[in-house]
Amino acid sequence: MLVRCVVCGEVFDDSELVCPVCGAGPESFVPVSSPSKDSAGSTSRRFVILGGGAAAVNAALAIRNADEGAAISLYSNEAYLPYNRPMLTKGLLGDLSEERLAIHDRAFYKQMRIDVHLGMEAFSIQRDMKAVIFTDSSAAFYDKLVYAMGSNAFIPPIEGSKNSNVFSIRSLDDARSLKARLGQAHKAVVIGAGVLGLEAAWAFSQAGIETCVLDNAAVLLAGKIDLRFSEALAKKALEHKVTILPSASAVRINEDSVELADSRRLEADLVVISTGVRARSLIAQLAGLEVQRAVVVDKLFRTSDPDILACGDCAQCDGVSSSLWSQAVAQAQAAGQSAATGSCAAIGTPVYPMTLSAFSTTLFTVGKKTEDSRLESLNGNMCAYYYEDSKLVGATLLGNVGKEISYVIRTMNL
Fold first, then answer.
1. What is the dihedral of CA 36, 42, 47, 49, to 10 degrees?
2. Angle at CA of residue 70, ends 65 and 76, nearest 5°
3. Burial 104-114, CB ≥16 within 10 A → b, else e
4. Residues 6+ apart with CB under 8 A from 317
5. Nearest-angstrom CA–CA distance, 291 and 312
6. Which of 1, 115, 204, 240 has a beta carbon 3.0–4.6 Å from 211's, enabling a disulfide?
7. Do 112 and 74 touch, CB atoms closer than 8 A?
Protein backbone atom coordinates (compact mmCIF):
# COMPACT_ATOMS: atom_id res chain seq x y z
CA MET A 1 0.00 0.00 0.00
CA LEU A 2 1.16 3.54 -0.70
CA VAL A 3 1.26 6.26 1.95
CA ARG A 4 1.88 10.00 1.83
CA CYS A 5 3.99 11.85 4.38
CA VAL A 6 2.01 14.93 5.42
CA VAL A 7 5.23 16.71 6.43
CA CYS A 8 6.89 16.74 3.00
CA GLY A 9 4.24 15.30 0.67
CA GLU A 10 6.35 12.34 -0.50
CA VAL A 11 4.49 9.18 -1.57
CA PHE A 12 6.12 5.81 -0.91
CA ASP A 13 5.46 2.21 0.12
CA ASP A 14 4.13 1.72 3.65
CA SER A 15 6.88 -0.81 4.38
CA GLU A 16 9.18 2.17 5.06
CA LEU A 17 9.49 2.88 8.78
CA VAL A 18 10.45 6.54 8.25
CA CYS A 19 9.86 8.91 5.38
CA PRO A 20 12.82 8.55 2.98
CA VAL A 21 12.73 12.28 2.23
CA CYS A 22 12.30 14.06 5.57
CA GLY A 23 12.70 11.33 8.18
CA ALA A 24 9.22 11.75 9.69
CA GLY A 25 7.76 8.74 11.51
CA PRO A 26 4.65 6.66 10.72
CA GLU A 27 2.43 8.97 12.77
CA SER A 28 2.81 11.41 9.85
CA PHE A 29 1.73 8.93 7.14
CA VAL A 30 -1.71 8.75 5.52
CA PRO A 31 -2.82 6.14 2.96
CA VAL A 32 -3.20 7.17 -0.67
CA SER A 33 -4.33 5.40 -3.82
CA SER A 34 -1.95 4.58 -6.65
CA PRO A 35 -1.45 7.45 -9.12
CA SER A 36 -3.63 7.24 -12.20
CA LYS A 37 -2.27 7.01 -15.72
CA ASP A 38 -2.84 10.20 -17.69
CA SER A 39 -1.47 9.26 -21.09
CA ALA A 40 -1.87 11.77 -23.91
CA GLY A 41 -0.58 9.24 -26.40
CA SER A 42 2.84 8.43 -27.72
CA THR A 43 5.10 10.84 -29.58
CA SER A 44 8.74 11.05 -30.60
CA ARG A 45 9.28 14.46 -29.00
CA ARG A 46 12.53 15.22 -27.19
CA PHE A 47 12.28 16.45 -23.60
CA VAL A 48 15.44 17.69 -21.89
CA ILE A 49 15.48 18.31 -18.13
CA LEU A 50 18.23 20.31 -16.46
CA GLY A 51 18.70 19.45 -12.79
CA GLY A 52 19.37 16.54 -10.50
CA GLY A 53 16.93 17.01 -7.64
CA ALA A 54 13.35 16.13 -6.77
CA ALA A 55 11.93 18.68 -9.22
CA ALA A 56 13.88 17.24 -12.15
CA VAL A 57 12.91 13.65 -11.33
CA ASN A 58 9.21 14.38 -10.81
CA ALA A 59 9.01 16.46 -13.99
CA ALA A 60 10.52 13.54 -15.92
CA LEU A 61 8.03 11.08 -14.42
CA ALA A 62 5.09 13.37 -15.18
CA ILE A 63 6.21 13.61 -18.81
CA ARG A 64 6.54 9.84 -19.07
CA ASN A 65 3.09 9.43 -17.51
CA ALA A 66 1.63 11.59 -20.28
CA ASP A 67 3.76 10.47 -23.24
CA GLU A 68 4.77 6.83 -23.64
CA GLY A 69 7.05 7.36 -26.60
CA ALA A 70 8.88 10.59 -25.82
CA ALA A 71 12.65 10.68 -25.43
CA ILE A 72 13.39 12.01 -21.94
CA SER A 73 16.90 13.02 -20.94
CA LEU A 74 17.84 14.33 -17.49
CA TYR A 75 21.16 16.14 -17.02
CA SER A 76 22.63 16.64 -13.53
CA ASN A 77 25.87 18.41 -12.67
CA GLU A 78 26.41 16.06 -9.71
CA ALA A 79 28.15 12.69 -9.86
CA TYR A 80 25.29 10.91 -8.07
CA LEU A 81 21.81 9.80 -9.00
CA PRO A 82 19.19 12.30 -7.75
CA TYR A 83 18.91 11.96 -3.99
CA ASN A 84 16.77 13.05 -1.04
CA ARG A 85 18.48 16.32 -0.14
CA PRO A 86 16.51 16.96 3.13
CA MET A 87 18.16 13.87 4.63
CA LEU A 88 21.66 15.38 4.45
CA THR A 89 21.52 17.21 7.79
CA LYS A 90 19.61 14.32 9.38
CA GLY A 91 22.24 11.80 8.28
CA LEU A 92 25.47 13.54 9.26
CA LEU A 93 26.24 10.81 11.78
CA GLY A 94 24.73 8.00 9.74
CA ASP A 95 24.87 6.47 6.28
CA LEU A 96 25.55 9.03 3.56
CA SER A 97 25.83 6.46 0.79
CA GLU A 98 24.37 7.16 -2.62
CA GLU A 99 22.30 3.96 -2.38
CA ARG A 100 20.59 5.00 0.84
CA LEU A 101 19.82 8.57 -0.23
CA ALA A 102 18.86 7.96 -3.86
CA ILE A 103 15.30 8.85 -4.84
CA HIS A 104 15.32 5.90 -7.27
CA ASP A 105 17.96 3.41 -8.32
CA ARG A 106 19.41 3.05 -11.82
CA ALA A 107 17.06 0.20 -12.68
CA PHE A 108 14.05 2.44 -12.08
CA TYR A 109 15.21 5.08 -14.57
CA LYS A 110 15.94 2.35 -17.11
CA GLN A 111 12.46 0.92 -16.61
CA MET A 112 10.90 4.37 -17.08
CA ARG A 113 13.13 5.01 -20.12
CA ILE A 114 14.61 8.16 -18.64
CA ASP A 115 18.20 8.71 -19.73
CA VAL A 116 20.14 10.12 -16.76
CA HIS A 117 23.41 11.90 -17.54
CA LEU A 118 25.58 12.67 -14.50
CA GLY A 119 28.43 15.12 -14.13
CA MET A 120 27.03 17.34 -16.88
CA GLU A 121 27.34 21.08 -16.18
CA ALA A 122 25.12 23.21 -18.40
CA PHE A 123 26.96 26.14 -19.98
CA SER A 124 24.26 27.85 -22.02
CA ILE A 125 20.82 27.53 -23.57
CA GLN A 126 20.75 28.33 -27.29
CA ARG A 127 17.08 29.08 -27.83
CA ASP A 128 17.35 29.62 -31.58
CA MET A 129 18.81 26.11 -31.97
CA LYS A 130 16.64 24.67 -29.15
CA ALA A 131 19.77 23.21 -27.63
CA VAL A 132 21.57 23.09 -24.28
CA ILE A 133 25.35 23.38 -24.51
CA PHE A 134 27.41 21.77 -21.75
CA THR A 135 30.87 22.67 -20.50
CA ASP A 136 32.36 19.68 -22.34
CA SER A 137 31.03 21.25 -25.59
CA SER A 138 28.41 18.55 -26.09
CA ALA A 139 24.82 19.54 -26.89
CA ALA A 140 21.33 18.25 -26.11
CA PHE A 141 18.54 19.24 -28.50
CA TYR A 142 14.99 19.56 -27.27
CA ASP A 143 11.40 20.13 -28.30
CA LYS A 144 10.62 21.12 -24.70
CA LEU A 145 13.11 22.01 -22.00
CA VAL A 146 12.39 21.84 -18.26
CA TYR A 147 14.69 24.08 -16.21
CA ALA A 148 14.87 22.50 -12.73
CA MET A 149 18.34 23.51 -11.61
CA GLY A 150 17.39 24.15 -8.01
CA SER A 151 19.32 26.49 -5.76
CA ASN A 152 22.66 27.09 -4.12
CA ALA A 153 23.36 27.78 -0.46
CA PHE A 154 23.34 31.49 0.29
CA ILE A 155 26.59 32.56 1.92
CA PRO A 156 26.38 36.04 3.51
CA PRO A 157 29.34 38.40 2.96
CA ILE A 158 31.12 37.40 6.15
CA GLU A 159 34.89 37.81 6.20
CA GLY A 160 36.50 34.38 6.37
CA SER A 161 33.48 32.51 4.98
CA LYS A 162 35.78 30.64 2.56
CA ASN A 163 38.09 29.32 5.27
CA SER A 164 38.75 25.58 5.37
CA ASN A 165 36.80 25.20 8.63
CA VAL A 166 33.60 26.67 7.13
CA PHE A 167 30.91 24.49 5.55
CA SER A 168 27.45 24.74 4.07
CA ILE A 169 25.21 21.71 3.56
CA ARG A 170 23.56 21.73 0.16
CA SER A 171 25.00 18.68 -1.61
CA LEU A 172 26.04 15.16 -0.78
CA ASP A 173 29.66 16.19 -1.24
CA ASP A 174 29.11 19.02 1.26
CA ALA A 175 27.68 16.63 3.84
CA ARG A 176 30.46 14.09 3.37
CA SER A 177 33.15 16.75 3.71
CA LEU A 178 31.56 18.03 6.90
CA LYS A 179 31.16 14.55 8.35
CA ALA A 180 34.86 13.86 7.75
CA ARG A 181 35.70 16.94 9.81
CA LEU A 182 33.58 16.07 12.85
CA GLY A 183 36.22 13.88 14.48
CA GLN A 184 38.67 16.79 14.56
CA ALA A 185 36.26 19.39 16.00
CA HIS A 186 35.71 20.38 19.63
CA LYS A 187 33.64 23.56 19.40
CA ALA A 188 31.30 24.60 16.60
CA VAL A 189 29.24 27.59 15.57
CA VAL A 190 26.18 27.30 13.35
CA ILE A 191 25.22 30.53 11.62
CA GLY A 192 21.47 30.33 11.05
CA ALA A 193 18.77 28.96 13.35
CA GLY A 194 16.33 27.44 10.88
CA VAL A 195 15.43 23.76 10.83
CA LEU A 196 18.54 22.73 8.87
CA GLY A 197 20.85 24.71 11.14
CA LEU A 198 19.27 23.19 14.24
CA GLU A 199 19.54 19.69 12.77
CA ALA A 200 23.24 20.26 12.13
CA ALA A 201 23.69 21.53 15.69
CA TRP A 202 21.98 18.41 17.02
CA ALA A 203 24.35 16.20 15.01
CA PHE A 204 27.32 18.10 16.45
CA SER A 205 25.95 17.66 19.95
CA GLN A 206 25.62 13.92 19.44
CA ALA A 207 29.22 13.87 18.23
CA GLY A 208 30.32 15.49 21.49
CA ILE A 209 30.96 18.94 20.00
CA GLU A 210 30.01 21.97 22.07
CA THR A 211 27.91 24.15 19.77
CA CYS A 212 26.53 27.69 19.57
CA VAL A 213 23.77 28.59 17.11
CA LEU A 214 23.56 32.22 15.97
CA ASP A 215 20.00 33.42 15.44
CA ASN A 216 19.50 36.78 13.73
CA ALA A 217 16.04 36.98 15.28
CA ALA A 218 15.33 37.72 18.91
CA VAL A 219 13.24 34.56 19.22
CA LEU A 220 13.99 31.02 18.00
CA LEU A 221 11.95 30.11 14.90
CA ALA A 222 10.28 33.50 15.07
CA GLY A 223 6.93 33.65 13.29
CA LYS A 224 6.63 29.88 13.19
CA ILE A 225 6.02 29.02 16.84
CA ASP A 226 4.88 30.89 19.96
CA LEU A 227 7.36 32.34 22.44
CA ARG A 228 6.65 29.65 25.02
CA PHE A 229 7.65 26.95 22.52
CA SER A 230 10.70 28.91 21.40
CA GLU A 231 11.90 29.15 24.98
CA ALA A 232 11.18 25.48 25.66
CA LEU A 233 13.05 24.37 22.54
CA ALA A 234 16.04 26.57 23.39
CA LYS A 235 16.08 25.01 26.86
CA LYS A 236 16.04 21.51 25.32
CA ALA A 237 18.98 22.49 23.13
CA LEU A 238 20.94 23.81 26.11
CA GLU A 239 20.44 20.50 27.92
CA HIS A 240 22.38 18.94 25.04
CA LYS A 241 25.21 21.51 25.12
CA VAL A 242 23.78 23.57 22.25
CA THR A 243 23.45 27.26 23.08
CA ILE A 244 21.07 29.42 21.03
CA LEU A 245 22.28 33.03 20.84
CA PRO A 246 19.42 35.37 19.85
CA SER A 247 19.94 38.62 17.93
CA ALA A 248 23.45 37.48 17.03
CA SER A 249 25.28 37.98 13.76
CA ALA A 250 28.77 37.03 12.66
CA VAL A 251 31.13 39.57 11.09
CA ARG A 252 34.33 37.51 10.82
CA ILE A 253 35.25 33.83 10.83
CA ASN A 254 38.75 32.81 11.90
CA GLU A 255 40.34 29.37 11.93
CA ASP A 256 39.63 29.06 15.65
CA SER A 257 36.81 31.52 16.38
CA VAL A 258 33.85 33.55 15.17
CA GLU A 259 33.61 37.28 15.87
CA LEU A 260 30.16 38.78 16.40
CA ALA A 261 28.81 42.23 15.59
CA ASP A 262 28.58 43.02 19.32
CA SER A 263 32.34 42.31 19.72
CA ARG A 264 31.92 38.91 21.33
CA ARG A 265 34.28 36.18 20.17
CA LEU A 266 33.20 32.54 20.17
CA GLU A 267 35.70 29.71 20.06
CA ALA A 268 35.05 27.50 17.03
CA ASP A 269 37.17 25.13 14.99
CA LEU A 270 34.10 24.21 12.89
CA VAL A 271 31.53 26.59 11.38
CA VAL A 272 28.40 25.81 9.40
CA ILE A 273 26.53 28.49 7.49
CA SER A 274 22.81 27.73 7.10
CA THR A 275 21.21 30.97 5.98
CA GLY A 276 18.89 29.94 3.18
CA VAL A 277 19.29 29.44 -0.56
CA ARG A 278 19.33 31.40 -3.81
CA ALA A 279 17.89 30.17 -7.12
CA ARG A 280 20.29 28.90 -9.78
CA SER A 281 18.93 31.16 -12.49
CA LEU A 282 22.03 32.60 -14.19
CA ILE A 283 21.93 30.31 -17.25
CA ALA A 284 18.26 31.15 -17.76
CA GLN A 285 19.01 34.85 -17.43
CA LEU A 286 21.87 34.66 -19.93
CA ALA A 287 19.49 32.92 -22.33
CA GLY A 288 17.21 35.96 -22.20
CA LEU A 289 14.47 34.45 -20.04
CA GLU A 290 12.68 36.71 -17.55
CA VAL A 291 14.31 36.38 -14.15
CA GLN A 292 13.52 38.19 -10.91
CA ARG A 293 14.33 36.40 -7.66
CA ALA A 294 14.03 33.23 -9.72
CA VAL A 295 12.93 32.27 -13.25
CA VAL A 296 9.49 33.75 -13.82
CA VAL A 297 6.79 31.27 -14.89
CA ASP A 298 3.06 31.42 -15.57
CA LYS A 299 0.29 29.15 -14.28
CA LEU A 300 1.43 26.45 -16.71
CA PHE A 301 5.05 26.82 -15.54
CA ARG A 302 6.09 28.24 -18.90
CA THR A 303 8.88 30.77 -18.88
CA SER A 304 8.96 33.77 -21.23
CA ASP A 305 9.90 31.17 -23.87
CA PRO A 306 6.89 28.82 -24.15
CA ASP A 307 9.15 25.89 -25.08
CA ILE A 308 11.07 26.24 -21.79
CA LEU A 309 9.38 25.48 -18.48
CA ALA A 310 10.78 25.91 -14.98
CA CYS A 311 9.89 24.44 -11.59
CA GLY A 312 11.20 23.98 -8.06
CA ASP A 313 13.60 26.22 -6.17
CA CYS A 314 14.64 28.04 -9.35
CA ALA A 315 11.08 29.03 -10.37
CA GLN A 316 8.94 32.00 -9.38
CA CYS A 317 5.16 31.83 -9.88
CA ASP A 318 2.82 34.71 -9.01
CA GLY A 319 5.77 36.56 -7.52
CA VAL A 320 6.52 33.72 -5.09
CA SER A 321 9.55 31.43 -5.07
CA SER A 322 9.73 28.60 -2.55
CA SER A 323 12.55 26.37 -1.37
CA LEU A 324 10.24 23.71 0.11
CA TRP A 325 10.70 20.15 -1.05
CA SER A 326 6.93 19.60 -1.11
CA GLN A 327 6.34 22.61 -3.35
CA ALA A 328 9.18 21.60 -5.67
CA VAL A 329 7.60 18.19 -6.17
CA ALA A 330 4.11 19.61 -6.76
CA GLN A 331 5.43 22.19 -9.23
CA ALA A 332 7.47 19.58 -11.07
CA GLN A 333 4.52 17.25 -11.50
CA ALA A 334 2.48 20.13 -12.92
CA ALA A 335 5.34 21.39 -15.11
CA GLY A 336 5.94 17.94 -16.57
CA GLN A 337 2.26 17.53 -17.34
CA SER A 338 2.18 20.99 -18.90
CA ALA A 339 5.25 20.28 -21.03
CA ALA A 340 3.74 17.06 -22.35
CA THR A 341 0.07 18.05 -22.74
CA GLY A 342 -0.08 21.86 -22.74
CA SER A 343 -2.19 21.95 -19.58
CA CYS A 344 -1.93 21.06 -15.91
CA ALA A 345 -4.03 21.03 -12.77
CA ALA A 346 -3.73 24.00 -10.43
CA ILE A 347 -1.44 23.29 -7.48
CA GLY A 348 -3.22 25.42 -4.91
CA THR A 349 -1.65 26.04 -1.52
CA PRO A 350 -1.62 22.78 0.45
CA VAL A 351 -0.85 22.99 4.15
CA TYR A 352 2.42 21.30 5.07
CA PRO A 353 3.63 21.07 8.66
CA MET A 354 7.07 22.06 9.85
CA THR A 355 8.77 19.36 11.86
CA LEU A 356 12.07 19.19 13.72
CA SER A 357 13.48 16.13 15.45
CA ALA A 358 16.44 17.27 17.53
CA PHE A 359 17.67 17.56 21.10
CA SER A 360 15.79 14.36 22.05
CA THR A 361 12.44 15.95 21.27
CA THR A 362 10.08 16.55 18.35
CA LEU A 363 8.63 19.89 17.30
CA PHE A 364 5.60 19.82 15.01
CA THR A 365 3.66 22.89 13.93
CA VAL A 366 1.00 23.35 11.29
CA GLY A 367 -1.79 25.70 10.26
CA LYS A 368 -2.87 29.03 11.67
CA LYS A 369 -2.29 30.54 15.09
CA THR A 370 -5.51 32.07 16.48
CA GLU A 371 -6.57 33.77 19.70
CA ASP A 372 -8.74 30.77 20.53
CA SER A 373 -5.90 28.53 21.70
CA ARG A 374 -5.78 25.76 24.28
CA LEU A 375 -2.49 24.75 25.87
CA GLU A 376 -1.99 21.31 27.34
CA SER A 377 1.08 20.18 29.26
CA LEU A 378 1.47 16.56 30.29
CA ASN A 379 4.49 14.36 31.02
CA GLY A 380 6.86 16.99 29.66
CA ASN A 381 4.91 17.45 26.41
CA MET A 382 3.60 20.87 25.36
CA CYS A 383 0.62 20.99 23.00
CA ALA A 384 -1.14 24.11 21.76
CA TYR A 385 -4.30 23.72 19.68
CA TYR A 386 -5.75 26.63 17.75
CA TYR A 387 -9.42 26.92 16.84
CA GLU A 388 -11.58 29.01 14.53
CA ASP A 389 -15.35 28.71 14.92
CA SER A 390 -14.75 25.62 17.08
CA LYS A 391 -12.76 23.98 14.26
CA LEU A 392 -9.13 22.94 14.74
CA VAL A 393 -7.08 25.05 12.28
CA GLY A 394 -3.58 24.78 13.74
CA ALA A 395 -1.38 23.17 16.34
CA THR A 396 2.11 23.31 17.81
CA LEU A 397 3.43 20.23 19.59
CA LEU A 398 6.70 19.68 21.43
CA GLY A 399 7.96 16.54 23.13
CA ASN A 400 7.23 12.87 22.62
CA VAL A 401 4.16 13.75 20.61
CA GLY A 402 3.59 10.91 18.11
CA LYS A 403 -0.01 10.33 19.23
CA GLU A 404 -0.76 14.03 19.23
CA ILE A 405 0.62 14.41 15.70
CA SER A 406 -1.65 11.60 14.51
CA TYR A 407 -4.64 13.32 16.14
CA VAL A 408 -3.90 16.64 14.44
CA ILE A 409 -3.40 14.97 11.05
CA ARG A 410 -6.74 13.16 11.31
CA THR A 411 -8.66 16.12 12.69
CA MET A 412 -7.32 18.66 10.19
CA ASN A 413 -7.54 16.13 7.36
CA LEU A 414 -4.00 16.89 6.23
1. 20
2. 85
3. beeeebeeeeb
4. 297, 298, 299, 301, 331
5. 14
6. 204
7. no
Q: Does residue 14 fall inside a structural domain? A: no
- State the pLDDT confidence band at 377, using cuts at 50, 70 and 90: confident
Give the chain's domain count: 3
**Do 325 and 397 reside in the same domain of the chain?**
no
Residues 70 and 123 in one domain: yes
pTM score: 0.92
As a whole number of angstroms, the distance between CA 385 and CA 366 comes to: 10
Give whole-number Cα distances, 255 to 189, 220, 224, 262, 273, in Å. 12, 27, 34, 19, 15
Burial of residue 254 (number of CB atoms within 10 Å: 0-12, 13-18, 19+): middle
Q: Is residue 16 part of a domain?
A: no
Pairing assessment for the beta strands 122-126 and 114-117 based on DSSP bridges: unpaired
Write out pLDDT tens, residues 228-284.
Answer: 999 999 999 999 999 999 999 999 999 999 999 999 999 999 999 999 999 999 999
In the structure, how many helices (H) and strands (E) does the chain have? Answer: 10, 28
Q: Is residue 12 domain-resident? A: no
* pLDDT given at position 16: 87
CA distance 376 to 10: 30
| Residue length of the chain | 414
Q: What is the pLDDT of residues 133-173, one digit of tens each?
A: 999 999 999 999 999 999 999 999 999 999 999 999 999 99
Domain extent for 406: 360-412
**DSSP secondary structure letters along 48-83:** EEE-SSHHHHHHHHHHHHH-SS-EEEEE-SSSS--B
Q: Is 381 exposed, middle or buried (0-12, 13-18, 19+ CB in 10 A)?
A: middle
Same domain, residue pair 237 and 267: yes
